[in-house]
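step=encode ok
step=design start
structure_in=
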């Protein structure tokens, strides 16, 4: 074990991780930040007194805020409407965007299409796609398969940061895409590519490059097994925009979610569909989450959820069946299992609908995941419909949060939800009390509690 030296300022020993830069008060075998073993070494002594901050000539003079030029901060459209929606109208010159997602979800395909649209559109000039994970030939084959070939789209297979910057110096692109930030290595930092120190150094260098040149940069980021962006937590603070690309391996639907956005809303969602010939936008995805059956079926309820600012139709299905098990099974897919269990308890206690001796299965259609409380009422109605074998009438939706006392509470954006349902042909809605006047084309029935909702179901 290394011998500690006294910190010149505090008189206490100090140690530093050579991989991520974390400093600790005493020596440990494993770094508490990055988890690497044997990387904690004796830290250099700190200066005895803080140095005085000097002055320097500013790079640009300060101006009154009303005189600052806005042209440099106006978003430029990428050519992909769903991507522009999430970005807030397009990508801002000098902005650094981090796109994270699981392997195989389609990140590279989406960005290759974005590079092609950028080059073909001509608004930002040529685009440069730097790949550190695949060879140039592999990317060329994908571009040919998806129809993303263009003479102004340049491809560089580099895993060395100075080499990638040399491509930028030579080509002067209007858009730079780096796939991925975990595979690029900088000579100014220690550690292996993908390590905490390397990811931080590469990202910092690319952020400086973007700000100096006004060059928009999109970085591909890997995720850990729990869905978080791999690398240091400071990575998300360094960039301007963080996007999460999500999708089920068994479904063609892909959702692009905004996590952080300094230039626009951080709660927008874009919808795409992954196919054999590339990735396509889905500007009206509500039909993907609703079953196509015309006749009402027991155990189904349609609702409207709000993803960001976009209302989407979704269908909740439930199945209640007798069981021979001493402990009945409860299974939920696409729904919060805790809230499903809560709805079963509310139906039992407040609605006198017993399911303690039956298996209950609840799921969404199309692989959609819903976590907002507005799905409580349709979930309860779907379970009750399956239990009573009474279908909800065609053209009916349900929206509302259900409390433990059985009351139905208001949720946000009810007017927008009802307008979307009316646009798609729904005629009747079960909503909480005092939700305001409904939009034209749809009538509403206000249900104050779960008992009144069940009475509405039984009258059908």
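sequence_out=
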């Amino acid at each position: 074990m290394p011998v500690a030296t006294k910190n010149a300022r505090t008189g206490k020993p100090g140690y530093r991780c050579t991989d991520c830069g974390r400093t600790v008060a005493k020596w440990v075998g494993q770094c508490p930040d990055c988890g690497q073993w044997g990387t904690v070494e004796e830290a250099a002594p700190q200066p005895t007194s803080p140095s005085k901050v000097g002055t320097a000539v500013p790079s640009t003079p300060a101006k009154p805020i009303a005189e600052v030029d806005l042209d440099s901060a106006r978003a430029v459209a990428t050519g992909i409407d769903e991507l522009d929606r999430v970005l807030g109208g397009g990508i801002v010159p000098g902005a650094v965007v981090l796109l994270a997602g699981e392997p195989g979800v389609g990140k590279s395909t989406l960005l290759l299409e974005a590079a092609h649209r950028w080059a073909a559109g001509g608004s930002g000039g040529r685009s440069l796609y730097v790949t550190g994970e695949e060879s140039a030939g592999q990317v060329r084959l994908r571009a040919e398969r998806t129809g993303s070939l263009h003479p102004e789209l340049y491809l560089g297979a580099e895993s060395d940061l100075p080499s990638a910057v040399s491509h930028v110096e030579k080509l002067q692109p209007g858009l730079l895409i780096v796939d991925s930030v975990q595979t690029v290595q900088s000579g100014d930092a220690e550690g292996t590519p993908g390590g905490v120190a390397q990811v931080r150094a590469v990202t910092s260098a690319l952020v400086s490059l973007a700000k100096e040149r006004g060059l928009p940069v999109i970085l591909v980021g890997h995720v850990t097994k729990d869905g978080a962006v791999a690398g240091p937590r400071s990575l998300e603070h360094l960039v301007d925009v963080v996007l999460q690309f999500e999708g089920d391996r068994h479904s063609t639907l892909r959702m692009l979610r905004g996590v952080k956005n300094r230039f626009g809303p951080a709660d927008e969602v874009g919808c795409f569909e992954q196919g054999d010939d590339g990735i396509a936008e889905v500007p009206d995805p509500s039909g993907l989450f609703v079953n196509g059956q015309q006749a009402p079926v027991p155990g189904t309820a349609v609702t409207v959820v709000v993803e960001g600012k976009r209302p989407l139709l979704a269908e909740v299905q439930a199945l209640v069946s007798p069981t021979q098990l001493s402990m009945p099974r409860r299974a939920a897919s696409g729904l919060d299992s805790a809230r499903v269990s809560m709805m079963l308890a509310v139906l039992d206690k407040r609605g006198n609908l017993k399911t303690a001796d039956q298996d209950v299965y609840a799921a969404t259609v199309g692989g959609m995941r819903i976590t907002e409380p507005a799905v409580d009422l349709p979930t309860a109605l779907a379970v009750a419909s399956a239990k009573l074998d009474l279908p909800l009438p065609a053209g009916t939706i349900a929206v509302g949060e259900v409390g433990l006392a059985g009351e139905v509470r208001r949720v946000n954006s009810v007017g927008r939800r009802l307008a979307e349902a009316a646009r798609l042909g729904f005629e009747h809605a079960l909503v909480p009390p005092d939700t305001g006047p409904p939009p034209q084309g749809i009538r509403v029935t206000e249900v104050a509690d779960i008992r009144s909702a069940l009475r509405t179901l039984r009258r059908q």
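step=design ok
step=annotate ok -> The two ends are 77 Å apart (CA to CA).
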